[in-house]
């Protein structure tokens, strides 16, 4: 049985592939005080990575650097085996090409010590199919970030059928240890969670443009000046919990349940069974975590006001300019 | 031909129905320095409205009141005809019941002067069906707000088949005049725009809960700590424009277009025809309005940092408490 490393013992990590996503990960790891060993087949990898880190550094500084963080604490290696040597964790961020990822993950798994976990930034493939060429797929885990990975906290973690469940929970713990918001999924679902939600909205938007029902600008305005203002603090479920008034999600489902039959999107809704109804209500109660209706409303309103003020400052001609 | 009132000549408006939405509208109108005449069949309408206005007032004060704004500048009337007497605009926010709205809108249209426009807060019905009982449906327009109407700027405006197009554009101008973000739709679409997008995401979320693919809390975390952080400043379309890197939406569509065939949501995507592709690309270019890739990225990053800081303050135990 493998003993995975203690999080606090890890001082260096490898980034395999340093495009927008991999480079963003590298910047994030550096900001946490880690040293980064990078590999990328592109001939100007080092210059590109340097630019990505420099671009991300002001944001990372604003959010707070670890004490020993340095933007220069990285090396770029021509040889993959050399890049992953001695590291405590590997983040793979190669282009979204199944065969390429299969080969690369097999090579990485072979090159690192048997207690090193390898996270893949894939936004769509499941680890079961990506791990197919690896001799030992037990430490291969999806760790799906959001662009830009140095600013968006979310990481979705899910193992494949051959992944050691201990490696999956180690990966979740590790991402949390370095300050990420982690969702650990029990099983592989195409698109994971955030991309499924985002993709449903995106496809509905494409249909609307396709049918002349809305323009691109109207779609964006509908979100930025509408529900998008509520979502950074309270997600869509808790938002609807509040829409139900004092009666919460139960009232909301009983009152607006019939609208699930309305043609308000091209996506058919599931049957609102008693079980589904109860699951959604219980989930909202868990999330409210004892906060009263009044407290949730006060937090929502405070967030909307502050977010509107932030956005207005940035939109104004006197607002933030590009460096 | 009707001459609609000048916006600056309007000093009083009527709110028909003062539940959560209508009461929120009343608070908003008061904050703009208008006087409000309210009608609601509920016996404790006045006390309820007073509570709603008092609850909204701190937020409205934080966002900035008009010079002559007063939270006491309202009257509640037992008689509908009396409530709408002499006002320059009527906002109807009755419960979401078609027959009830048809009757009420017919009565309002008959009671007001022929140059007064009537906006309906309906979140789902089209004005063509809601106006069926009105003798003169020409000034009946949908003006769909988002909860809470005193904080979320979005109002979706769309007329019915019998609405005077001048009344529709007057309504859009009026909502803009009082500080709202307005989307004027060319034709009736069930769910308008924002609710279609929101509903697609909500239905996908319900399917995921129904199938045990995600919990309520995971769904909310996926949005609040993921794409939801990007959407208050840049909507889903402009977000993907940036995901395309320097190549923008064109590169994004060519690169990720095939993922429209992936089972990343239960909603089938439209065919990515050359026309659709071009419409989306052109829309993003219009929206970027000359801002460079670097400028857009800098604005996005500044917004995400500031929004994260806002949210963290509110979430922390020292953060905002309910009043």
TrEMBL record, chains A, B:
GO terms for molecular function: carnitine 3-dehydrogenase activity. The keyword Oxidoreductase applies. Belongs to the 3-hydroxyacyl-CoA dehydrogenase family. Residues 191-259 form the 3-hydroxyacyl-CoA dehydrogenase C-terminal domain. Pathway: Lipid metabolism; butanoate metabolism. Its EC number is 1.1.1.108. Keywords: Oxidoreductase. The lineage of its organism: Bacteria, Bacillati, Actinomycetota, Actinomycetes, Micrococcales. Coiled coil: none annotated. InterPro entries: 3-OHacyl-CoA_DH_NAD-bd (IPR006176), 3HC_DH_C (IPR006108), 6-PGluconate_DH-like_C_sf (IPR008927), 6PGD_dom2 (IPR013328), NAD(P)-bd_dom_sf (IPR036291). Residues 12-187 form the 3-hydroxyacyl-CoA dehydrogenase NAD binding domain. Gene3D superfamilies: N-(1-d-carboxylethyl)-l-norvaline Dehydrogenase, domain 2 (1.10.1040.10), NAD(P)-binding Rossmann-like Domain (3.40.50.720). This is Carnitine 3-dehydrogenase. Pfam families: 3HCDH, 3HCDH_N.
């Amino acid at each position: 049985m493998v003993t995975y490393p203690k999080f606090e013992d890890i001082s260096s990590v490898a980034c395999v592939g340093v495009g927008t996503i991999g480079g963003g990960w590298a910047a994030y790891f550096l900001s946490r005080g880690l040293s980064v060993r990078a590999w990328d087949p592109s001939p100007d990898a080092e210059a590109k990575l340097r630019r990505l880190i420099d671009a991300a550094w002001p944001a990372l500084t604003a959010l707070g650097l670890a004490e020993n963080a340095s933007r220069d604490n990285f090396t770029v290696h021509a040889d993959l085996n050399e890049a992953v040597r001695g590291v405590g964790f590997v983040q793979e961020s190669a282009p979204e090409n199944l065969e390429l990822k299969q080969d690369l993950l097999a090579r990485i798994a072979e090159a690192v010590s048997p207690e090193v976990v390898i996270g893949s930034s894939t936004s769509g493939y499941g680890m079961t199919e990506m791990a197919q060429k690896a001799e030992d797929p037990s430490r291969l885990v999806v760790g799906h970030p959001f662009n830009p990975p140095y600013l968006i906290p979310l990481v979705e973690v899910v193992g494949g059928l051959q992944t050691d469940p201990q490696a999956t929970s180690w990966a979740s713990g590790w991402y949390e240890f370095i300050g990420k918001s982690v969702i650990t999924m029990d099983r592989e679902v195409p698109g994971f969670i955030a991309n499924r939600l985002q993709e449903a909205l995106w496809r509905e938007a494409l249909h609307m443009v396709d049918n002349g029902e809305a323009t691109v600008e109207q779609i964006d305005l509908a979100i930025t000046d509408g529900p998008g203002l509520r979502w950074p603090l309270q997600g869509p479920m808790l938002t609807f919990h509040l829409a139900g008034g004092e009666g919460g999600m139960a009232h909301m489902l009983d009152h607006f349940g019939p609208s699930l039959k309305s043609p308000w999107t091209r996506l058919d809704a599931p049957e609102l069974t008693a079980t589904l109804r109860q699951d959604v209500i219980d989930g909202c109660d868990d999330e409210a975590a004892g906060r009263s209706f009044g407290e949730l409303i006060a937090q929502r309103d405070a967030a909307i006001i502050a977010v509107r003020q932030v956005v207005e400052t940035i939109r104004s001609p006197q607002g933030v300019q590009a460096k």
